[in-house]
Amino acid sequence: MSExxxxxQQEEQAAFIGKIAPxxxxxxxxxxxxxxxxxxxxxxxxxRYGMSGLAAYHNYFGIKCGGSWKGTSxxxxxxxxxxxxxxxxxxxxxxxxxxxxxxxxxxxxLLDYPRYKxxxxxxxxxAYLTEIKAAKYATSSAYVANNMNVVRAHDLTEWDKxxxxxxxxxxxxxxxxxxxxxxxxxxxWIGKKExxxxxxxxxxxxxxxxxxxLPRKTKMKYEWAWCACMWSALAVKLKYLAIMPIEISCYYLxxxxxxxxxxxxxxxxxxxxxxxxxxxxxxxxxxDNTGNPDHVGTVTYVNRDSGYMVVTExxxxxxxxxxxxxxxxxxxxxxITPKYDDGAVTEPERTSGKSVSAIAHEAIAxxxxxxxxxxRNMEAAGYDYDVVQAEINRIVxxxxxxxxxxxxxxxxxxxxxxxxxxxxxxxYDGAVAGAYVTTADLYCRNDAGxxxxxxxxxPAGTVVQCYGYYNMFGGVKWLYIQFTINGxxxxxxxxxxxxxxxxxxxRYN
Length: 509
Prior knowledge:
This protein has 13 helices and 17 strands. By secondary structure, the chain is an alpha+beta fold. The longest helix has 29 residues.
């Protein structure tokens, strides 16, 4: 075997272990097992690292149907050693599962049978394998030795340490993976920064893992970009390695998430708090973003109605900071969606003592309500509503460009540059397409809603074009329009409440 082939084989084996081992840890922890390295070895050996014919049916443990199985099955040939030293081929019916996690769960459901009762109490892989062999799980006389060779070859006992950590989550030996804990920990790190060295505490948490457990066996250095390290440190600190992929590279973080089955490729996926968002700053906006990832953060708040999410990020301007961004926006590479046990995260507290800018950004994201409700909530917390609202207007509308003169909105003028919303229109209706005239000075925004950033201010009487696309916000259509001002072609969203069909001055509904 060439060195290249050997390395490729090792990578494929490691990839299989990286995908199935966290699931084995998860279900072993739930049932109070004291060892998982043996089960991981069994999956490797029985399925030839996921490459066997039976593995195609997500049966990684060679589990036969037996008399109690009511699910899907497949008939395949296998080797049995009913007489020591004599192997013979037989055909039998084997269980078939829908996916890897179901297959792993099926293994532990099999071990719930009374004859495997003692397996759960074994603390070493050799004792585990000896007990499971004695319970007639396998016929091979070399079953224990062969599996132990796999345990040693891949240092699988390191996964036993993760099992112990997971079982410490509560006193009943049941692992609870909580979105709330991830959100709370991420937000507790806000303000840590390179300037005073406080960011090093995050990196130190990641580096507490033994080198053999670190991805690519690489320790994190203080001077490296640390956004992925922060996400990974959350997993290390909370002992959530069974459900959260870890890496110090955004690229390899995605690859690990894919192997664990927790990668969400779709840009328009609506995340939940506790998920991770991965960015690509070179996204062109054309089709699904499949470019190289540049940055990652932890989603800590989502407001579907307001169309925003808040992301807490490491290495954002060399510090841990919050970013407020639109859902389904440009630059989103995808999401990491760990399989948490809980689904709810409490709403952020409306507390006093924050800066006007911080409160304004929270309000834009929808944390303080709208209209009279927003004013009531802010005043109850001791804030001057008018001051905060002025800051909101500055943030949302302050960067909007304006027409220089009457001629600067001529739609036949040459186009020298283009500015487009980073959010996408989600609805198409051919009946909406056509030319419109603005009935008042009207902001063109990055997405539907007055709380979205304004790209420019369109003078009343300007002709704009809609090609049939729009988004809804607050029960109002926000048309996706295009027009030219000062030689710049803008593409963005404006409320149809201030747009009339050209040549038909009745408002289009």
